[in-house]
Specification:
alpha+beta, five-stranded antiparallel β-sheet, elongated, disordered C terminus, 47% helix
Length: 425
């Protein structure tokens, strides 16, 4: 028996439900696609282009808050302030903990001379998030205006601890303020705790054009910088070199003495035997950076310790190695043990002691025979010479055949009856 054929009009009727389902699915897909697109555009552009974001999805709290904040930084007309308030409240209606919106309402209160109300809102903003830089900046300014130094430094600390951009903005201000006696001690107490930003602050302090002064001691001594730690050692070198350059010799000596447990005002030559390998200049040896200078620290003869090796190939007057001294006024004897090289005194480098910004107090040619010998020269330091450079200078007339080694450099005071040798080998 053959199957019955369905009349054409019934075939059309039976296919209509399928068509409806397909149309409904397509329509739903279009709606979902539009919704996804709207939400995506809203999220992507909520901060960079709030009007575009709100045009696609008016319910975005972040876009309302961003537009309100943007208005506060660009237009303070009454109608613009009203729109900013409207946007901020719209953001809070959708997201009650939106920090940016709360900060905007606080700024609006400040513009309207409601300082207490602004402070309460900013404190609420900070309780919700300490990472908001705008909030911390306002609170810093508020505490400074109230002469609350500890409070201002607390907000500096919070901003510098969590916000990268804050360091570029705030560290120069903090460096400039750090020499103010009212700020130095509270800041020193906070630095002593080694917050995350202590190293960045010290680097900014050293690199700034602000003059080095007594506040360096107050700020840096509580850090107890340890030269055994590479970061601390580099910081010590930078700090001490700036202080010496600023002729703040006593402060430089205090910081070095704390780190090394040796007071350079009483120790004559440090590392006269070149054992520390250029570790803590300028109170210890610094060798010329130029590879062509012809100077290095190498093993001593017999394999015991080290000594300085110079070839005297650099231009005349080149400082091959130098160390900063703080010899008090008096009579001294400069001594060294030298070896190898020619005996011609015109072809050898010299050991020099020169007052900072003044005359040369001693100039001793490093003449030696192949076996090694002791050399010495007496000299005087006047009361007008509080700091000196002890240097090995090239005379620029040597060659490979004139390589010389220098060891056991020392300075001994002659006019102090009980003075002992000042060598620190």
């Amino acid at each position: 028996m053959s199957p019955q054929r369905v009349p054409p009009r019934f075939q059309v009727l039976s296919s209509r439900p399928a068509l409806v389902r397909i149309a409904a699915a397509v329509l739903l897909g279009i709606v979902l696609l539009w919704l996804v697109l709207a939400v995506t555009i809203s999220q992507v552009y909520s901060r960079s282009n709030p009007p575009l974001s709100l045009g696609w999805f008016p319910g975005t709290a972040e876009a309302h808050a961003a537009r309100a904040a943007s208005t506060m930084t660009s237009d303070l007309k009454p109608e613009s302030l009203a729109q900013a308030e409207k946007d901020a409240k719209a953001a809070l209606k959708r997201e009650p903990g939106n920090v940016e919106a709360i900060r905007t309402l606080a700024l609006l209160a400040d513009v309207r001379n409601d300082r207490p109300g602004a402070a309460r809102l900013m404190q609420l903003s900070e309780r919700l998030s300490r990472r908001d830089l705008g909030t911390q900046l306002w609170l810093i300014e508020h505490d400074v205006s109230e002469q609350d130094i500890e409070g201002a430094l607390l907000h500096y600390h919070r901003a510098l601890s969590v916000s990268g951009p804050a360091r570029d903005l705030l560290l120069p201000v903090l460096v400039q303020a750090s020499s103010d006696p009212a700020i130095t001690q509270p800041l020193a107490r906070r630095l002593a705790q080694r917050p995350l930003w202590w190293s960045a602050f010290v680097n900014a302090l050293v690199q700034s054009d602000a003059p080095a002064g007594p506040h360096y001691a107050a700020l840096l001594l509580p850090l107890h910088l340890n030269p055994a730690l590479e970061e601390d050692r580099k910081t010590l070198i930078d700090v001490i070199e700036k202080l010496v350059g600023a002729k703040q010799y006593a402060i430089a000596a205090d910081i070095y003495a704390q780190a090394r447990k040796v007071d350079p005002r009483r120790s004559g030559v440090r590392d006269g035997g070149f054992e520390l390998h250029n570790e803590m200049p300028p109170f210890e040896w610094r060798l010329a950076d130029d590879p062509g200078a012809g100077v290095a620290i190498g093993p001593a003869e017999g394999g015991e310790g080290y000594h300085l090796i110079v070839s005297n190939e650099a231009a005349a007057g080149t400082q091959l190695a130098r160390e900063f001294l703080m010899l008090p006024a008096g009579r001294y004897r400069l001594r060294a043990r030298v070896g190898a090289g020619p005996e011609d005194r015109q072809q050898v480098p010299v050991l020099s002691v020169q007052c900072i910004g003044g005359k040369e107090a001693a100039r001793m040619p490093v003449a030696a025979n192949g076996q090694g010998q002791n050399i010495a020269q007496d000299f005087s330091i006047g009361a007008d010479c509080p700091g000196q450079w002890l240097a090995v200078l090239s005379t620029g007339v040597g060659g490979a055949q004139s390589e010389i080694w220098i060891d056991d450099v020392s300075v001994r005071r002659l006019d102090a009856p009980h003075a002992a040798s000042r060598s620190a080998k």
